[in-house]
Amino acid sequence: MIENVSQPVSTATESLNAARNIIPNQEYLLQGSVMDSAVEVLLHRLRGLCDNVDSGPEPFYDHEMCFSIRGAGSMQPLLLRVRRALDYQDMPWQLRYIGQPEIGDKSRPTIVRNSIDIGTSATVVEFLTELGCRMDFEYIVRGYMFRKGRMKITVSKIFKSGQGKPLDNMEALSQSYLVELSVLAPSGQDAIAEDMRSFAEQLRPLVQLEKVDCKRLQHVP
Amino acid sequence: MAYSVSISVEAPIENQIQEITYDGQELYQSPLSMSENLARLAQKIDFNKVIPEEVEKENSDSLEKSDDESSSKDSAAFQSSLWPWDSVRNKLRNALTEVCVLSDVLAIAKEKRYMVLDPVPQEGVETKPMVQVYARKKALAGAATVLLTGAERLRTSQTEISRNRTTPDFHIELLRLRQNWRLKKVSNSIIGDLSYRTAGSKYAQTGMFEVTKAEEENPTTGSPPPSPGPGGAPKPSSALRVMVPSELQGVAYIEVLCQKDQEDLCSASINVLGSGPTATNPDIHWQQKLEAAQNVLFCKELFNQLAKEAVQLQAPIPHMVVGNQIMATVLPGIQLIISLCHSTGTDKKPPSQNPPQKSEHDHVLEHSLHQLLREVHHKNTHHPFPHPSSGPIGPSKKRCLAGPMAADRYELMEMMKSQTLLEQIIQQAQHFFMRLRTEYVLDTIAKEVKDPLIVSHWNALNSPTQSCVKINIMTHGYDSVCRTSLIVHVGEKSLKCVCRDGRVMHMSYEPQELRDLIFCQIYQHQITAVQALAKCMGWQFLANSSHLGLGAVEPLGNASSCILASPIGDRLIAVRCEPHMGVQVAIAQSPRKDFFPGQLVKERKWENLGGSFKEVRWDKMEGKNFLNKMELLMASLTSS
């Protein structure tokens, strides 16, 4: 497709406003977990259900750090996540902001939350530290990614990162795998949530993907 | 004063009050259920009461007594009140008596003092063995006949099926079909999909086909087999029939022709569109039918895509789309014609009009087109995965890096550009022609020029748009003395030549340019070779010039020359080479032979200055080739 270069030049704000409808800033999410003994069956099933059966699941190996910064006063701290791919060192790092899940009606099939992610260079940690963010925690996640249409399914295991080199002395946080089904879409496309729900139904007896309310899981100190 | 007082009148409570709770609520005793009522009545039975027979006996015994009547009356009265339960009571009482007697007898017999249990001697049953055998035989025969009739029935049905039906079972066929094609059941019918949708195609036309059971045909076992003729023996038809949409029936392929310019473009039409009935040949097996239909769909999509691009693209010479043909100009004078040939198989007539100069259908380019479309499909489905995994699916690695690396608008626009199918195939066709021309030029030169040999090695590995050829110019017999090599990279519309000394020359698609270049290189080779030979022969090299400014202006390239001196210095050879005139050799010798002292130059010693150059008649010279002749010349002029 050849671009027609002779377009009328529009101002930056005009093009930004026009682009707002297509920037994916909402994340629709369903989560579940399987025990270690059952993960092979789940992977086999996902391999059959998802796209590109011939190429197989894509492994990934990421390191995530969570930063928080407190504004003036006793507001809620702003949480930012920095994630990098340990197996693809030349890919850019990712800075991500995840908002609170929308407290909509209970009939919504999935969690909907704001999600903005930006590609950055490796100096983002220094940048955030200079801004005043403190690192709350970090972890290493390793697993497989699948894709079905716009939906992305990850089956991953979370490890506690040892001090120094993250490669050695990794201990798993639990004896289970975290399964996540997510779609990044512009706001207003709620129909995708139904597709996600029907796909989750197909995985039903192996893993139960549902809306997980994080607030209930968090311990309030 | 009369006050009206409310009086409530209630019926008495039927059920007894069981308890009154603290809040005043009364809990009634629930009325007895049927089983509870029965239990209540049963409890009233007194099993110790005497039965009527005993009562009569007692009555007969004590007839004298005066209170007989009263007791009989009493028993009669009692009897009448227990009437519903009397028989039950009597039976139970009898049972009790019997059981008591039995237990007494057993206790006494166990003691073995007064009673002993003795077995009664059994008389042997008189059985006649023959009767038994006969009975058994009859029974077995009966069972055997039942089993045999059943087996016989099964066998006959099996042989009948296998004899009559040469076709396999419908369900087995359906299973085979399902292993190869996507099927689904919609209400009563089975619908299949043969499009490339799941492989990444975005073509709008559906590829739905329907599967039905084949009609029962009369078995042809009775009639004699037909004689082998044009019809052939009847093939066994399969149990299921497949119906493809009418626009996908038949066979199609994309025909790619590269031909020289024609004045009359309309005459080069090679349509073989059948206009006959669309009834398909029923003898084709469903697999071939479906594969052919899928191919038709693929060719249609490919042609559709190419036609869209041909209309949208703006080329220096515009592309033309006429009917089912696309004409694009590859190089000046050469056209690429892509046409969709779709035949429904019923049109048996050969095409009536064959264009006079029909070049062969290029299978390689057709295959390339198929591959290009498949690549487009592949890109549609295989999007790169995000790393780290929480990123969005879709952007390529370049696009992901564009942010952190601060790509500007121009770079982003460049990233968006991609080549269309038509452009790619035109490039491949252009390269094909460039390669063909280069081959032709090199082969012609190699045939024409025998003196230095031109050897060309084409690289075995190349791409559809680039090839390489290495050209070695050497003289026969002297290939270790001197060899000139150059590499020519053949692109789509240009050539690039890299010489050994580092010169890079770019040429256009005209074959004459390459020819001229090669000729120039040949004559430069000669001079270089002479110099190398001189080293071997011991001759000294005095001077050379690659671009000689002396003599007539050359039409092609520049003349080159060199001057050599013999080992003892008494002979000189001057060589001049140029592509147009060939080779000119002249020799001179040091003490002049024709020295005559004159008015100005009187002394003898001036004869050592050396004479003038005299040209050698090179065509009369002995020797197989130029270098050989030079060698012989040098050998003859060398005097020790």
Automatic annotation (TrEMBL), chain A:
Q: Name the Gene Ontology molecular function terms of this record.
A: transcription coregulator activity
Record's keyword annotation contains Transmembrane helix: no
| Pfam families assigned | Med18
**A GO biological process this protein is involved in?**
termination of RNA polymerase II transcription
Organism superkingdom = Eukaryota
Q: Where in the cell is it found?
A: Nucleus
A single GO cellular-component term on record: mediator complex
Q: Which Gene3D superfamilies match?
A: Hypothetical Protein Pfu-838710-001
Q: Which InterPro entries match?
A: Mediator_Med18 (IPR019095)
Give yes or no: UniProt keyword Nucleus.
Answer: yes
Q: Which residues form a coiled coil?
A: none
UniProt main location, coarse:
nucleus
Question: Whom does it interact with, and what assembly results?
Answer: Component of the Mediator complex.
What PANTHER family does UniProt report for this protein, alphabetically? MEDIATOR OF RNA POLYMERASE II TRANSCRIPTION SUBUNIT 18, MEDIATOR OF RNA POLYMERASE II TRANSCRIPTION, SUBUNIT 18
Q: What is the role of this chain?
A: Component of the Mediator complex, a coactivator involved in the regulated transcription of nearly all RNA polymerase II-dependent genes. Mediator functions as a bridge to convey information from gene-specific regulatory proteins to the basal RNA polymerase II transcription machinery. Mediator is recruited to promoters by direct interactions with regulatory proteins and serves as a scaffold for the assembly of a functional preinitiation complex with RNA polymerase II and the general transcription factors.
UniProt-recorded name of the protein: Mediator of RNA polymerase II transcription subunit 18
Origin species, per record, is Gryllus longicercus
Automatic annotation (TrEMBL), chain B:
Tell me the Gene Ontology biological-process terms attached to this UniProt entry: regulation of transcription by RNA polymerase II
Instruction: List the InterPro entries.
Output: Mediator_Med17
GO MF term (any one): transcription coregulator activity
Keyword Cell wall biogenesis/degradation present in the record's keywords: the answer is no
Positions of the UniProt region annotated as Disordered: 214-238
The protein's UniProt keywords, in alphabetical order, are: Activator, Nucleus, Transcription, Transcription regulation
Bias category Pro residues: which stretches? 222-233
- What does UniProt give as the signal peptide span? none
GO CC entries:
core mediator complex; mediator complex
Q: What is its main location?
A: nucleus
Location of the protein in the cell: Nucleus
Short name of one Pfam family for this protein?
Med17
Q: Family membership, please give it.
A: Belongs to the Mediator complex subunit 17 family.
Q: Can you state the subunit structure given in the record? A: Component of the Mediator complex.
- Provide the function of this protein: Component of the Mediator complex, a coactivator involved in the regulated transcription of nearly all RNA polymerase II-dependent genes. Mediator functions as a bridge to convey information from gene-specific regulatory proteins to the basal RNA polymerase II transcription machinery. Mediator is recruited to promoters by direct interactions with regulatory proteins and serves as a scaffold for the assembly of a functional preinitiation complex with RNA polymerase II and the general transcription factors.
Q: What is this protein called?
A: Mediator of RNA polymerase II transcription subunit 17
